């Protein structure tokens, strides 16, 4: 669910607060385990980089979650960050178009 009055938490915060810190890991230990550069982990944790499908797979395997968990966090963050300032009315089908078979 995308919050309406704030920006969704960046997945890097979740990674740090719910996984790295409780497990007593360092960012270096995690990067070594995932066999990726420490800069990638550090930029994710700092909110400077998003979760890619590749990173989602690696994190899901390391933490016994699903890649969808990580991608959903990223998607919710991106959508809440980029909510439009204007509203658009839905397009309504004309009555004649509703009756006409395709």
Summarize the structure.
By secondary structure, the chain is mainly α.
Structure description:
The chain is 56% helix and 0% strand. α1 packs across α3, α2 packs across α3 and α4 packs across α5. The chain is elongated, with a radius of gyration of 19 Å. The chain is mostly helical.
Which features characterize this protein?
102 residues, mainly alpha, 6 helices, elongated
What's the topology here?
Layout lengths: L10 H10 L6 H8 L3 H8 L7 H11 L3 H15 L13 H5 L3
Helix pairs in contact: 1-3, 2-3, 4-5
The shape, in one word, is: elongated
Briefly note the structural class of the backbone.
Answer: mainly alpha
Residue runs with pLDDT of under 50 for 5 or more positions: none
Q: Order of helices and strands, N to C?
A: HHHHHH
How much strand?
under 5%
Distance between the termini: 35 Å
Helix content: 55-70%
Quaternary state of the chains: single chain
The chain-level mean pLDDT equals 92
Radius of gyration: 19 Å
Describe the largest sheet: none
Number of strands: 0
Number of helices: 6
């Amino acid at each position: 669910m995308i919050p309406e009055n704030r920006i969704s938490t960046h997945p890097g915060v979740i990674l740090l607060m719910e996984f790295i810190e409780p497990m007593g890991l360092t960012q270096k230990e995690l990067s070594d385990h995932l066999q990726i550069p420490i800069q990638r982990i550090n930029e994710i944790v700092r909110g400077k980089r998003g979760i890619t499908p590749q990173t989602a797979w690696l994190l899901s395997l390391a933490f016994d979650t699903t890649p969808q968990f990580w991608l959903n966090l990223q998607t919710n963050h991106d959508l809440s960050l980029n909510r439009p300032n204007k509203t658009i009315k839905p397009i309504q089908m004309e009555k004649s178009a509703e009756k006409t078979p395709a």
